[in-house]
Amino acid sequence: MPLDRDPRLDGLEVYRVGGAVRDARLGWPVKDTDWVVVGATPEAMRRRGFKPVGRDFPVFLHPETHEEYALARTERKSGHGYTGFVVHASPEVSLEEDLARRDLTINAMAETPGGTLVDPYRGLDDLEARRLRHVSPAFIEDPLRVLRTARFLARYADLGFVIAEETRELMRELVVSGELSHLVAERVWAETEKALGEPWPEVYFQALDECGALAELMPELADNPAALDAALGRLHRLPEDIADEALVRWRWARLVEHLDDAARERLAERLRLPKVHRDLARQAALTRCLRLAAGQELDATQVMTWLDGIDAWRRSERVAPLIALVSLDDAGLAADLALAWRLAAQVLPSPLVEEGFKGRALGEELARRRREAIAAALAS
């Protein structure tokens, strides 16, 4: 239903805000549309059929479009971290006051249902100048904005966007203030996960490194600048034909594959990573070790250890993508591994059972014959 004909909105002062306004003017795909309602009360929204969903401030879902309508509000710093705010929502809060609490000027634009731009903080100027600039000095009150700014840079870097120097300085001040330590792991990972899905994820980590945030949040990555540069260069070197939903975990795996087991697990625990990301990172690290070992002379025991380590016998779907990963740097080794895997996978336990093997002896004989098959493949 067109917005200007929606009876639920008759008499309400509503504005489209945030990403929908920004991305439409950039020619970027608009995924979600959010609205701000000025001059209304929660009771008035409920009477019109809107469903309240906000836990900390009044946000409502349209009963038909399911788009979010938030009452105009202001925020006042009351504690540490991104949750340390007192929210004030009332009919007296103006649109300009609501927009003032936002992080970047390009996110502080609004437009009427008819498309008229409301831009009190010159977001359009910054959009055209390809500049990420904070709305107000209140930027420094929310440590999450350091990560969000870096993430927006990762999204729009190819369009020529840069972070304004005065905003970079506030990001550095936030780091020095110690506010980053009050960010919970889930929020740090949520922003990082989004950044890994952006077109230029390496820019996110570079921006965090430049302001000192990476050393605070992910010291295992920041400790070795040369290794970090190499890791960021791997983010676009991925196996072919990976599914879209696997992109983020593959990029994470490539980012951390050079870390030793202890450092990688320490980082994963600090960020409370999902198990699927931890597992793939470990598999990528094992594959990297195998590839480096092949620089000397690869033997059947090393390949067998790798296959055991990635649980290839039970999770055979893991093998092909990891061999494709090897092929990015060493096509010859990848071909050897593919042949070794094909021959070893043909050695099955059922014929050995028929020969009389059982229990521990069955496992040992199965491993021995698979190792022989791998050795034959490497020799050929």
Structural class: alpha+beta
Query: What global shape is seen?
Result: elongated
Fraction of helical residues? 40-55%
The portion of residues forming beta strands comes to 5-15%
What is the H/E order? Answer: EHEHEEEEEHEEHEHEHHHHHHHHHHHHHH
CATH architecture of the domain at 1-121: 2-Layer Sandwich
- Number of helices in the DSSP assignment: 19
Straight-line distance between termini: 68 Å
The biggest beta sheet is recorded as:
7 strands, mixed
CATH H-level superfamily of the domain at 1-121: Beta Polymerase, domain 2
Highest-level CATH class of the domain at 1-121: Alpha Beta
- Tell me the CATH topology of the domain at 1-121: Beta Polymerase, domain 2
**Residue-averaged pLDDT, rounded?**
93
**Number of strand segments:** 11
Short recap of the structure:
By secondary structure, the protein is an alpha+beta fold.
How would you describe what is shown here?
With 380 residues, the chain is α+β, with helices and mostly antiparallel strands. It has a domain at 1-121: Beta Polymerase, domain 2 (2-Layer Sandwich), CATH 3.30.460.10. 51% of the residues lie in helices and 10% in strands. The chain is built from 19 helices and eleven strands. It has helices at residues 19-26, 42-47, 95-100, 123-128, 144-156, 165-177, 185-196, 201-211, 213-217, 219-222, 225-233, 247-256, 261-271, 275-293, 300-309, 319-327, 331-345, 349-354, 359-379; strands at 13-17, 34-38, 51-52, 59-61, 68-71, 73-77, 85-89, 110-111, 117-118, 131-132, 162-163. The strands form three sheets. A seven-stranded mixed sheet has the order 3-4-5-2-1-8-9. It has a two-stranded antiparallel sheet with strand order 6-7. The protein is elongated. The protein starts with 12 loop residues before the first strand and ends with a helix. The model has no long low-confidence stretch (mean pLDDT 93). Belongs to the tRNA nucleotidyltransferase/poly(A) polymerase family. This is tRNA nucleotidyltransferase (CCA-adding enzyme).
